[in-house]
Write the C-alpha cells for this entry.
Amino acid sequence: MEILQKNGQRNGAFLATENGTVIGEMTYLWQGNNRFVIDYTGVIDAYKGKGVAKKLVERAVEYARENHCTICPQCGYVRTVFARCPDMGDVLD
C-alpha cells in the first residue's frame, strides 16, 4: 500500500493506493497556512478493517509535524483515532 497526497491551495487529500487503485481516501480543507480540517475518511469495502484508514491518519499527522501544522478533526473516525492515540496530540487543534 502506498499513501499519496494531493495538496491544493484550499483543500487536499491523502489517498491509499494498491496496485494503482485507490482503496481509501481522507480529505481536508485548509484554514489558514498552518491548520487543516479533516472532513472525511473512507475505505472501500474490501479493505475495511485492515488498518487503511489508520494509516491515512498517521500520514496526515506525519505531514502536520513536518510542516508545523495543526489538524482539526471533523471526521468522526479521525476524532476517535486522536482520542485513542494521545501521542498524536501535539498536532491536534
